[in-house]
Write a structure and sequence with these properties.
The structure holds 2 protein chains of 2 kinds. Chain A has one domain: MetI-like (MetI-like fold), CATH 1.10.3720. Chain A has 12 helices and no strands. In chain A, helix 7 runs antiparallel to helix 8. Chain B has a domain of about 200 residues: MetI-like fold, CATH 1.10.3720.10. In chain B, helix 7 packs across helix 9 and helix 10 runs antiparallel to helix 13. Chain B is flat. Chain B starts with a helix and ends in a 13-residue tail after the last helix. Chains A and B meet through helix 6, helix 7, helix 8, helix 10 and helix 11 of A and helix 1, helix 5, helix 6, helix 7 and helix 12 of B.
Amino acid sequence: MGNKKINQLADGITEELTEELFEFAEFDEEEAQRAGYSNYSYWRSTWQVFIQNRVALFCLILVSLLVVFTIIQPYLPNQKLPTKIYIDEKTNMQLRNHPPDSEFWFGTNSIGQDLWSRIWSGTRTSLFIGLVVAIWEAVAGIAIGSLWGYVRVLDRPITEIYNVLDNIPVTIVLILMTYILRPSLSTIIMAMCITGWLGMARFVRNLIVIIRDREYNLASRCLGTPTRRIITRNLLPYLVSVIMLRMALAIPAAIGYEVFLTYIGLGLPVSIPSLGNLINEGRALMMVPSLRYQLIFPAVVLSVITISFYVMGNAFADAADPRNHV
Amino acid sequence: MLRYSLKRLAQSMVTLFIIITVVFLLLRLMPEEGYFGQAYEKLDEAQREAILTSMGLRDPIHIQLLKFYKSILSGDLGTSMIYRPKVPIAEILRAKIPYSLYFGLTAVLISLVAGVSLGIIMAKSKSKIWDKLGTGYIVFINAVPAAVYYLFIQLYVTDILKLPILFKPDNPSSWILPAISMSLGGTASYAMWMRRYMVDELNKDYVRLAKAKGLKSKAIMVRHVFRNAFVPMAQYLPSTLLYTISGSIYIESLYSIPGMGGLLVDVIQRQDNTVVQALVLIYSSIGIIGLFLGDILMALFDPRINLQKKGGAR
């Protein structure tokens, strides 16, 4: 008897079904929200607020263009090699400290190398260092920092590991590494990665210690939320804005650190141009006013990179705060 | 809190022990040619051996370590080997630390006062003229490498203000510029973080409530927003203050100040092991104490922070 009824019902349904019902419905935001559904996506809203900031958008485009340009620059026509030493045809000497002209756009340095190609090659090296170190810093720093701050059992051991690693002078590590491995790009990146995450981890840890015992986390703990979920859902979203600002500064900071390492004589070998090398070479010639272009050109490129990242970081941090979303 | 502090400090002693042992062993891995510097070529094999033996570097490693621990426990930092041969390290440090401490503390003080107030002003007038001017300053300081703007200050400002280019201990006007140059970076970073934390804090609901119940905006700023915004910065305050004794490598070499800046890098490069070990011992004690005091300070500023383990916590 039951079967009969079902068949009847099914017949009734098939009669009412028409082609129209199988067409895709147009998405209507208002209709959707009436049913309590919102298509709000955190990152999309952040992005929307971010691109409303014209200056930040301009910086983003500028940095993208700069990255693209440093990559394609060696393949453009009429480019010189960054490490080739040019000889003056008249005197048969190295073309030392040649002022900028149509042949050498940014002039030559004290041993006759083309500064224009050195700057772009150096920017490439420095951006690469900055990017690798900053990404590593973000991944390791945030992961370790949030565990350090939130999980009390880990507080002591990680504090002690931090103290040990933070207090072994980087200079010793660098000297030993260059002694064992030869100075190269990978050596300097490794040395910077060994200690680079420490600052970020301590930073994240401090912020998490501040909010870990707030009531909403206590409530989550009482409900038995797993630690991983508390960290990714309760704690980190709360800190997105400050972490973003700090990350935006990580790339310029890594580049600046490379400048410092070059200054104390532990940077890259002179055969690999980097912004650190170039600025140091320029600094040595600061006292001669006509040669100051050798400091100013690399310093300007470095400043453009840093300013762009800072402005973007701040705009992104503002945009990342959901309270600023529409 | 007291029990927590004692426990943590006791643990720090173990950390300190690990650090100095690791550094001691790392130093023994350094290339042997490094101990002779320029003189390496001139000496023959036997002379080199004699020098290394006299430095105690030919002893078995555990004997060297035991000797090192013994001298530290008796409070003796040892004597320098290469940097200033046969001079007690304590004497070298006693001459250098006051300079770095003076400049460092002045710089931290200036940057703390200037930076925090700049940050507050910027957060208060967000996206108005003060905010933009302040941002301009922060961007400039962060963008131009410190090594470059220090140099420009030394070149031009000394000229404009008729201040001496090099540091002389008995000339008070030569103390001004180094201290101010050193504070520029700190000012920028304090202002930047102060503004960031204030802006984040100002967006919160309790500020709206405080406004709604008619609190004056100054009272909200000082009693609520500032206090909450300063907590994350408080953690760094003790270490910043303590680390001032390490000096600034750029400033001290530019103005030829006989301070601590660059001493560590210098002795590491010249492989004066005893001085390196002494400095690592001092700096790591400072680092550990700084981190610990930072935690305590943070908990004092914000009573909601609890450093101890309690029931139900993870």
